[in-house]
Design a protein that fits this description.
Length: about 290
Amino acid sequence: QVPELEKATVRIQQPERVRGIIQALREQGVAKLQVISDFDMTLSRFGCNGRRCPTSHNILDTSRVISEDGKKKLKDLLHYYYPIEIDPNRTLEEKRPLMVEWWTKAHELLVQQKIHKGDIAQIVRESEAMLRDGFKEFFDQLHKNNIPLFIFSAGIGDILEEIIRQANVFYSNVNVVSNYMDFNDDGVLTHFRAPLIHTYNKNNTVLQGTGYFQQLSTRTNIILLGDSMGDLTMADGVPSVENILKIGFLNDKVEERRGKYLDSYDIVLESDETLDVVNGILQYILTET
Ligand SMILES: Nc1ccn([C@@H]2O[C@H](COP(=O)(O)O)[C@@H](O)[C@H]2O)c(=O)n1
């Protein structure tokens, strides 16, 4: 069916079920399909040159516009809260208030830095931001076939939009919901817009009023791409889902988290920095039967 599913990075708990979903997505046609994806560490790479790639938050946190003291405080927050975010032994209920705490403290620190809107493009250009290998084929295929791509991110919207723009793939079929910055008349950051989106509230509660999924009510077949347990609820607001294929990138603490990921995602991609499998599935679905 899809040769890329034979890659060594691919793990599937229920291969027959997965085959059935992919077949249904193909037979029911492209007009019914939409893709819902996380951004950081899902469309962007987790590792590059033997090091961690930056998230959209990290890009800003480590940039030249942040004071040394600000950088240290933001790094301390990361070192304290990131292990909690990915801890397989804590429940989502335990994690949620702690994630609100992390994002709130980080956003407050960023606001203190008097960041200029006009600096964002250069900050991204100077960063080590990298989209996964195969990103161009992914964005191009979706655009060419008029398939909506909804990027639902707990990162920083202004930064991730700039990454996609600089990669020349910010097409008209791409919509982003994320944490956006607001600037005053002088172009200085004053606050982050509500609602605050963190790893574990990526669901309909933060999409109220956007009407996004309602406009796409005929797109009842979904490919969902994520890298955390929080990403599994990204499609909860879609009315009358017929088929959903959940693909999860397992980037970190692979051994510890494998079981949970296999129980929750249809396809798990372990330490795979590419979009090869996703592109292979899309190609198969888009081939006329
Ligand atoms: N101050 C922060 C807050 C969060 N992060 C990381 O960004 C990721 C964004 O979340 P997604 O669910 O959209 O991928 C998240 O995984 C946090 O680890 C950060 O780096 N700094």
